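Handout, section B. The chain below has 211 residues.
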Amino acid sequence: MTKKDLAKEIIERLKIEYPDAECSLDYDQAWKLLVSVRLAAQCTDARVNVVVEKLYEKYPSVDALAEADAADIEQIVRPCGLGKSKARDISACMKKLRDQHGGKIPRDFKALLDLPGVGRKSANLIMGDVFGEPAIVTDTHCIRLVNRMGLVDQIKDPKKVEMALWEIIPPKEGSDFCHRLVHHGREVCTARTKPHCEKCCLADLCGKHGL
């Protein structure tokens, strides 16, 4: 079985197992997803969803966050960890959205990467979830699982994993596939405990039991 064939079968099985492929970060405006994904670095999505409620209550718009003092933002986002750097990036990012993009999220991938605190993972998430464009989000779940499944060969670098997956994942499937990997990584193919291979819908394909 080629890697493309393997990817196709994995995609179809995950669709059955997790029919609702969606981001676990709560947002109702695009700029809020940009903020949340920055806060989610080394923090759980569940905690981010709680913290941003307080942040948006005080700063309900791009302009409000752009005008806020970074130290005040830090006080609110501190429970997410790395408060100082995250607050600094959020402040700078909102200023750039306000001053250069009319308060809107740019649809161009390179323009997204030019925003403070935005890397390839975040930019891909925005492209896929906000704009419905082809995207592959190589978060820790994705990297761990595609290595275990044999879709990539012991590659840990996020950009290299992304590039390898672009070769075998149909573009229209990329974003939802990565969301389903998150669900599967949390519920079955876990990182901090032994993977639950006995209840994995991909067990016969994986061959990585116990890794």
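Note. Residues 30-129 form a domain with the Endonuclease III; domain 1 fold (CATH 1.10.340.30). Compare this with the example in section A.
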